[in-house]
């Protein structure tokens, strides 16, 4: 199932400081968005609000599949929307136990669940580590486990907060592979990053948080911005 999220008059305030005010915001279905902005402008806060993990100071967010429980409890999380933190929380257990966690109550047989987990781990190159304790993994491998756990749930919208920070190239490539697969399935992704990389290159829309609001640019403008930045970098390198 693919869904759309709509936000209206969304604002976040900390005491006297207005972090941002966004009149209208829409994501999905099947979009790839690069969310950029300086440190402290509220990128992580915005992703948490969209996922239902945080409540805005004013405004509201709706998803096409929000049920009564979600409407009653504003921090209950949003169905089919996953927020992937740059330092993901992993359980004290094996790699397999971490990935299977999201589907532990599904109606599939144990055999089918295991097949799904092994497929996910194969996609991130960690199938041989399925029975290893999570503590033996490197930082990049842990991020890949978190991505596998998100992928297995087939989210309609995946919000990725600095997913490539401090990752080696193999880990980035594996996460890109999974992100592409989700896009092919009709999911949407939002990626925050301080620098352009293979993940941000998947994006066809740009959100830029600046001056306490959000500026949206279509693909053409993103390409133009990229060219200008590349030309600037080249001219200063010579």
From TrEMBL:
Source domain of life: Bacteria
SMART domains documented for this protein: AAA (SM00382)
InterPro entries, sorted: AAA+_ATPase, ABC_transporter-like_ATP-bd, ABC_transporter-like_CS, Metal_Ion_Import_ABC, P-loop_NTPase
UniProt cross-references to Pfam families, sorted A to Z: ABC_tran
Assigned keywords, A-Z: ATP-binding, Nucleotide-binding, Transport
Domain ABC transporter span(s) in chain numbering: 5-236
One GO MF term: ATP binding
Family stated for the protein in its record: Belongs to the ABC transporter superfamily.
Name of the protein in its database record: Energy-coupling factor ABC transporter ATP-binding protein
Organism: Vibrio japonicus
Organism classification: Bacteria, Pseudomonadati, Pseudomonadota, Gammaproteobacteria, Vibrionales
